[in-house]
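User: Hi! I'm working on a homework problem where we have to compare a predicted structure to a textbook description. Could you give me the structure for the chain below?
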Amino acid sequence: MNELATALHRSQVEAATKTRPRAFRRVLQTIHLWVGLILSIPIILIGLSGSALLVQREILSWSVPTVSSTGENQSIASMVAAAQASVPTLRANSVELPSSRGRPALVQFQFANRPPRNIEVYVDPVSLKVLGSSEIVRRGPIRDVLVTMHEYLMFPGHIGLPLVGYMAVVMTFMGFSGLILWWPKKSRWLSAFLVRRGARGLRLHLDLHHAAGIWGSVLLLILSISGIYLAFPQSVAETVRAVFPSHLVADDPPFPRRPAPNDPDQAFEFAAAAVPDARVTGIQLPRTSERPYMVQMETTGFGPSIPPITVAFDSKSGDISIDDPRAYTTANKVLNTLYALHFSLGMGGVWTFLVFLAGLLPLLLAITGLNIWWLKRRSR
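Assistant: Happy to help. Predicted structure tokens:
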């Protein structure tokens, strides 16, 4: 009799053990479904507007005139002088050096009126021919709508920014919960990543939802977590710094004091000598003789180039000040990487394309998820 009771108790325990994961999965599936259905519209708008902003940025980048002349680049001072001749009433603010062959130098000028407006003059670095100019409009009407939608969901800033941050939290939950619900049995790993040939109806939408979700899950999680940081920077920064406590960083070795650079070419030379494992990308020109040259550089190794390495020269003492993100604490490196990943800055063309696709994923997942719910409901 005792053996029978023991066996019965064991069978009940085993049944309860098997039932718990199924019950948890059903509850998680219900939450995943209804959160996705209710909040699909704002999440889709955030994703589509982000992809549209990325396309607009790339179109503007491609619209820069190309350089046809070949040979050695002229001095930076000559490029600035050539641009200055085309707008003699303005003073040059900065010069951005060509990133590769076929790209022009960009010399930026600022109008003195309010609000300030900038204009970029494109200069052939070899022939010094002015290739054109383009006034920098901070936000045109289309871009203004896209930015307001992506960052604030068309609400006032104090309402919209936290709201978008909470949407990023929701997307992070959807990513992790979707990964748990997708997790296949041992014998179904290969098919779980693909859309089965000949799939139709409910099976087609299930396969599309699962395949798109798993292939895009890492992208969506990266963009969602970085979006949380952008919406709640102080809270996220405190959390990251608690996980990665700061440590003392050794001071840079002192650089030999020398006279301050007299022109952008000297600033280029001094900066290249001070940070030999980086490439000069641009130079901030002093507006007065008492202001220093500011040289911006990017690392030649692997990794994001945002924020740039900044080298400043004291116009009086000749001291060199270097702000190198590679020497930052681990926490600050993590935060900078989140920023660069979200905006696809300095991450290469492949990552930019993947981020563009990630902005379209919420729409695909919402359509397939809605069809799955509707087809299951209709078949009952």
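For your comparison, note the following. The longest strand covers residues 130-136. The CA atoms of residues 223 and 342 lie 5 Å apart. Good luck with the assignment!
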